[in-house]
TrEMBL record:
It comes from Azospirillum thermophilum. Pfam families: Cupin_2. Keywords: Plasmid. InterPro entries: Bacilysin_H2HPP_isomerase, Cupin_2, KdgF, RmlC-like_jellyroll, RmlC_Cupin_sf. This is Cupin domain-containing protein. PANTHER family: H2HPP ISOMERASE. Residues 42-108 form the Cupin type-2 domain.
Amino acid sequence: MKGATDPRTDVFVIDAAVAWEDLGGGVRRKILGYNPSMMMTRVAFEAGAVGALHRHPHHQCAVVESGVFDVTIEGRTQRLSAGDGYIVPSNALHGVVAVEPGVLLDVFTPMREDFLG
């Protein structure tokens, strides 16, 4: 490969080139790509796994790649399945519960520097 770069900061995203990070509790994440203004991640959940309620200053949107999730944003809960998506405003309290195993594709703006630890 000519001019090998960090697969997370290249202009092309090759899923197989990025390792999963185990977050515990049946959740794992891949940082697919980022620059200072945005970040894309893939998050896999086992059935029953919880993305605990939290908030952050970043804007976020997500699409359900597979599975079924109960998504809560600011006290409002919706069951979403493959192809559905959601938008999280800055500082909105939000979280998910995997009703069955599934994968979310998340995009944040600006990038989540806290994910790069």
